[in-house]
Amino acid sequence: MQQAGVVIIGGGLAGAQVAIQLRQRKWVGPITILSQEEVAPYWRPPLSKSILAGTEEADTALIRPASFWERRAVSLRLNTQVVSLDSGAKSVTTASGARFTYDHAVLATGASCITPALPGISLPGVHVLRGLDDALALRDAVRPGARVAVLGGGFIGLEAASALTARGARVTVIERESRLLARVAAPAMSDVVLALHRAHGVTVLLGRGATAVEGVGGVAVAVRLEDGETIPFDRLLVCVGIRPETRLAAAAGLDCQDGILVDQALCTSAPAIYALGDCVRFTSQRYGRRLRLESIQNAIDGSAVVAAAISGEMPCYDPLPIMSSLQFGHQLDFIGLAVDAHESCTLEMGDRAGLVTVHGQAGNCIACECLDVTPDTLSILRDLITKKAPFKNCNARLNVL
Question: CA-CA distance, 297 to 301, in Å (whole number)?
Fold first, then answer.
């Protein structure tokens, strides 16, 4: 039995940032991070970008140097899987049988890749992209001229298509929906992104679902589509979404529903157990509904709230969702959620060749999506949406830039 003080389950950005925030707040008690990873906490965005492209090495993605954790008196235990959480006894048990008691527990268990139930999907040659080992394995397997099929036209699939094209691969993106980024982007932005990828030689197939992965000699070699066409490949990357990792929380009796349910302080249904990041659903006062956000900003903002709650404060988590993506050297930024938008306005940003779509609801600005705009423009847009400024004024505000 070991006293962990604050035990953080998960060694990704969310869990690492909680430890950092606690030490910045002068928290003096013991902090233990239990991580299944083999390496110290790292940033995930480079996995589908620079690391996959081969322009950045793995160690440059570390959130902090490995020595940082020891200097901050944070016990970082790698290759450690937590198999049970007992909220009554305030303890966690690992696969090796080690048991830790805690005063506060933090679930930063993240998410896992969704694997569609297709025949042949488990054959060698099929990849997912979630962890550092996934990125390195795919990078090492793809040589110039290799044919890569990407199943899914969301952020990760498109970023990977950009990075693999930069490595000299011939990439085909297969998207079931009728347009790219259909879940997050307006049609105008989808069209721009489609044109961008095709201009760089990516074959994009829209409205085409996959029905099977075909193999030869026990190795995946092609994906069969609903219309019967087969797309041959040397490697297949599956990027159809992620699923919140709630198994540990659910087994412990915590309330879960497409994520671990938390209150405004990111506390779960059990006292002294908090959760944050990709694995949680929280109530947004801003949008009047429960949300689950998959973004770096969500992990960073949530870590400050959890650290404040553990420190005895009464924080309220109600973030403005912010996401970004880099594809073929072009920056995409998304601020707010456009799910309830009644009107939209698309503006071209003059000589900078940028593009902005602002979304409005009930006469107010609620979200925007941008391509290649300046930090000053982003700041103005963030201010418009934070204040729910009148939608009719957005055009005038942006045209003066």
Answer: 6
